[in-house]
Structure formats: structure tokens, C-alpha cells
Write a structure and sequence with these properties.
By secondary structure, the protein is an alpha/beta fold. It is built from 14 helices and 20 strands. Bound molecules: ligand BES, manganese (II) ion and zinc ion.
């Protein structure tokens, strides 16, 4: 369950909450609510600033307990950094810092006044939504396959009050936050599940459940035989080494009458061992996250449906496991894709593009006005952009601008890489129409170039989320990206 959000304009000193969150700038300047609490408590905040315990530095948080004259049990001071530089990024940071501090407290509700902080070019609704989403992201806990350590379950944040007047704009902002939070949680949970649970059949079952729970959503799951009839030789080539049968999931939302749909396509490799071109053992466990593209488009679809967006959506997810075995496809195999193009397999670990190319061909039967595919496609994208930006590739300037803007607005940022024809030659093959790898240079781009061969000049963009879909490490977790970016993009199309 996502957090429950409420609005209130009560004075911060009079709010009976386990914790009130207020801001403090570097240099000691207080936000209006911090000033109000300072006055009502006889200078408690001024004293903690004077002592040097609270500095207002970005990232610093201080908890004050049981202040006289204050109804709330705790006051959380959040450092906002340089007042001259409180931009979108700084605000996101402060919202996340506050959320992390709240997560550590044994409380079930809190009240944040951070939306009163001035952020250049952003209004109240945006600030409320940003705080709500940052707090929900920190409140999520993975519990599907283990019990949290310790005897009694600690209390968990369930309700977040926000300082702001109840009105159409603020209410819309919180409705959007709830929907995006549901989508993000859905994507994170699916991403975090182990591949022995989250196999292609499980992803299909999740899609069916989503459809069953929401009026206006239809679902279809194509089985191996259906895909054989359609000639999806590339997808089936990847799937043939696994005991888990592939599924091609198709979800539709019709909120937009007769308009052509927006299409979302997500890579759903439920585990990527590399196949016969086996990956090294170290870090292979991270390849359970190789279905995060699928999780991301399903999460965005869920959010769009919860918001009942007035547009038509089609979501296509090829769900496949990439495994070595006696029946696996092999390097030098030639696959015939649904489009008719033949593909020389030079590396069975470049499997994502093989399942996506058939999904891209298939989705065109819906005559979409735009196709956006999302995939944990290449390690090369992580080398190029690191863990902060998703790689965006498209030949359409408007679409690029729209997606980049949506990423900025949600702090779920993307950065564009070129798809110039100059790179296409790297995919030449002596035995097929193209090869599935493009050599050692520009691996993220040649993967994008491979996909572009299956788009027939349609309006299309590719998001490589290999670096952004999860946080790595022993306790790494799926991030739910790029659900916020995708939902913002769709919201902007409705505005
Ligand atoms: N799922 C991987 C890409 C990946 C690797 C994502 C590491 C996140 C972290 C993809 O299927 C893959 O294996 N790509 C290969 C392509 C290569 C064989 C051309 C890669 O990136 O090494
Ligand atoms: Mn691979
Ligand atoms: Zn992969």
C-alpha cells in the first residue's frame, strides 16, 4: 500500500502529529513554518542553530523532541543548503533527506511543511507531489520473501500530511502522486522478486490481475504456439533454452475514444544468465533485474489507469528467460524475426534486442502514434551515463524534448545519445540481414540502432535503463524508474 496523503493549512505549532518537518537554510535562515515553531517554542530552533547542531547544510537533518508550546512530538529540521541555489535538484534532495529521516522514526504519520520553500519555476502542486513521492519511495519495504529482523514489527509511516490549501490543483497533485507511487511500487516489487518466483508466467499473472482489478483494461497473453504462428523467431530463439515458457503480454487501456494509442514496450528478461555466451558468476544475481523495463512499463500503465488518463495505451511485454541448455540458441545461429529480417546471433547475451525486435514489430498492428521501449539493454549505457541518467535514443526531436522534459520534472532524468546512420554499419553481417552485436564501440547506441531497424520509420524512442533501474550492492533494490518519467510524459500529453 502506498502512503495516504492529506492537506492542511493549520499552523505548524498546533498540528498534533508525531513529527512536523520544517526547513532550514544554510546560514540559519528559517522557513516560515520553522520561524513559527521557533517563536511558539521560545526560540528552540534558534538555539539549536546557534549551538551549531543544525547547520542547514544540504543533507543534514536534526530531530528536536518534545518542544514546549508545540503540539507535535518531534520537529524534524531539514537542511536546504544555499538559499540562493534552491533549485529543482536541491528540492528533490531535501525531500528525500526528510523522507529518509522519517523512515528511521517509529511513527505512522508525519506532517511536512517543505512545500513552502521557494523553488524557481515550480509551483505548490509540483512541490507537494515531489514531497509525496519522495516520502513514499522511502517508505517502501521489500518483505515478500523474508521477515524484517527483530522481534516486533516497528511502526511504519502510513499517512503523510502536507502543508497546503485543499483546492483543485493541490488535490490533483496528490492524486498524481498516489498513482505514480502505486506504479513505482508495482515496478519495484516485481523487480525485486527473485527469478524463481518472478518468471514469465508470474509477470503474465500480474498483468492479468492488474486487468481484473481495473475496469477498462483488457489483457491478452500470447503463448509459445501463438508466437510461432506469428513468426517471432527472434524472441523464440532466446526462449528456447529455458524450461520456463515465454509469454507475450498485451495490455490495453481505452480512455481516449478513437485516438491512436501510445505504445509502451518493456524488456522482460526474468533472468539473464547470458545463455551459451554465459555471463561471469560475479554479479550475475543482478540479472534478476533484467525485467525492469517490463516492470517499468507495467507500472506506468497502472498509474495511467489509476488516473483514468484520457488517452489510449497499449503495453507490450515480452517475458522470457535467457538460459543455457541443450536446446539453447547459440552463437552463429540465424534467427528469422517476425519482420522478416534475418539476424545472425554473435552473442547470446545480446538477447534483449532479440525479444524487443519482435515485440516492436507486433505492437505496430495497433497503429500507435508513438512507441516507447524501455529496457535494461546494455552495460555500455552504464559506462556512458552511470547510474543517474537513463539513455534516450530517438530520431524524433519533439519526442526527445518531451521525454527529456518529463524526466527533468520528475527528477527521473534521461540523457540523449545519437542514433546516426554512421553507426548502423557496425551491425553488418556476412550471413544475415544484421548481426545482434555491434562490436566494442558505442554499445548502447548500436543496440538502439538494432531496434531502429524494426520500427519502420515510426515515431519511436528507446530508453536504456540499465544504469537507473536498480541500486546495486548486497542490499540493492529496484528503483521503479522510469515510471515517473513515463507517467509525466503521458500526463503532459493530456494537458
Ligand atoms: N541485461 C544485459 C545488460 C546489462 C548488463 C544491464 C549489466 C545492466 C547491467 C544485456 O542483456 C546484455 O547482456 N548486454 C550485453 C550486450 C553485449 C553482449 C553486446 C552487455 O551489455 O554486455
Ligand atoms: Mn544479456
Ligand atoms: Zn539482458
Amino acid at each position: 500500500m502506498t502512503l495516504h496523503f492529506t492537506l492542511s493549512t493549520d499552523s505548524p505549532d498546533s498540528i498534533a502529529s508525531p513529527c512536523v518537518v520544517v526547513g532550514l537554510h544554510q546560514g540559519g535562515a528559517l522557513t516560515p513554518s520553522a520561524r513559527r515553531i521557533d517563536e511558539a517554542s521560545g526560540g528552540a530552533i534558534a538555539r539549536v542553530v546557534a549551538s551549531g547542531d543544525a547547520t542547514g547544510k544540504a543533507g543534514a537533518t536534526t530531530v528536536l523532541f518534545g518542544l514546549p508550546g508545540i503540539k507535535a512530538e518531534r520537529v524534524l529540521l531539514v537542511g536546504l543548503g544555499d538559499p540562493a541555489k534552491c533549485d529543482v535538484a536541491a528540492f528533490h534532495r531535501a525531500a528525500a533527506d526528510a523522507a529518509r529521516a522519517l523512515r528511521a522514526m517509529p511513527i505512522t504519520s508525519a506532517h511536512s511543511t517543505l512545500a513552502e520553500v521557494e523553488v524557481e519555476g515550480r509551483e505548490l502542486a509540483w512541490k507537494l507531489r515531489t514531497i509525496a513521492l519522495a516520502t513514499d519511495a522511502q517508505a517502501y519495504r521489500y518483505t515478500a520473501t523474508f521477515k524484517p529482523k527483530g522481534e516486533a514489527e516497528p511502526p511504519q509511516l502510513a499517512t503523510l500530511g502536507l502543508a497546503g490549501a485543499d483546492g483543485p490543483a493541490t488535490r490533483t497533485a496528490l492524486a498524481q502522486a498516489s498513482a505514480i507511487a502505486s506504479g513505482v511500487r508495482f515496478a519495484r516489487e516485481l523487480g525485486n522478486l527473485p527469478p524463481n518466483i518472478c518468471n514469465p508466467a508470474h509477470v503474465a499473472a500480474q498483468a492479468r490481475e492488474l486487468a481484473a482489478r481495473h475496469a477498462g483494461v483488457s489483457v491478452e497473453v500470447l503463448e509459445r504456439e501463438d508466437m510461432t504462428k506469428l513468426g517471432m523467431g527472434a524472441l523464440l530463439g532466446v526462449a528456447q533454452g529455458s524450461a520456463n515458457a515465454p509469454k507475450l503480454i498485451v495490455l490495453q487501456w481505452r480512455g481516449g475514444g478513437e485516438a491512436r494509442p501510445h505504445a509502451l514496450v518493456g524488456k522482460g528478461i526474468t533472468f539473464d544468465s547470458g545463455g551459451i555466451s554465459l555471463k561471469p558468476g560475479a554479479g550475475m544475481e543482478e540479472m534478476k533485474f533484467d525485467m525492469c523495463g517490463a516492470a517499468g512499463v507495467l507500472g506506468a500503465f497502472l498509474a495511467a489507469v489509476e488516473l483514468k488518463l484520457p488517452l489510449n495505451l497499449v503495453c507490450v511485454v515480452p517475458a522470457v528467460e535467457n538460459m543455457p541448455g541443450g536446446n539453447s540458441y547459440r552463437p552463429s545461429d540465424i534467427l528469422t524475426s517476425m519482420s522478416g529480417l534475418t539476424i545472425e546471433v554473435l552473442n547470446t547475451d545480446a538477447e534483449g534486442r532479440l525479444i524487443l525486435c519482435d515485440a516492436l514489430t507486433y505492437v505496430q498492428k495497433f497503429d500507435p502514434q508513438v512507441i516507447i521501449d524501455v529496457a535494461t539493454l546494455t552495460g555500455a549505457c552504464v559506462v556512458a551515463l552511470g547510474k543517474h541518467a537513463s539513455g534516450l535514443m530517438t530520431r524524433d526531436e519533439d519526442l526527445a524534448a518531451q521525454l527529456l522534459d518529463a524526466g527533468q520534472a520528475t527528477h527521473d532524468r534521461a540523457w540523449r545519445l545519437p542514433l546516426w546512420d554512421d553507426y548502423q554499419g557496425q551491425l553488418d553481417s556476412g550471413f544475415a540481414d544484421l548481426a545482434n552485436i555491434g562490436g566494442k564501440y558505442a554499445g548502447a547506441i548500436t543496440a538502439g540502432c538494432f531496434l531502429s531497424r524494426f520500427t519502420n520509420g515510426r515515431r519511436w524512442a528507446h530508453l536504456d535503463i540499465a544504469g537507473t533501474a536498480w541500486i546495486d550492492g548486497r542490499k540493492g533494490s529496484a528503483t521503479g524508474r522510469p515510471v515517473p518519467l513515463l507517467v509525466q510524459y503521458l500526463l503532459d500529453r493530456c494537458a
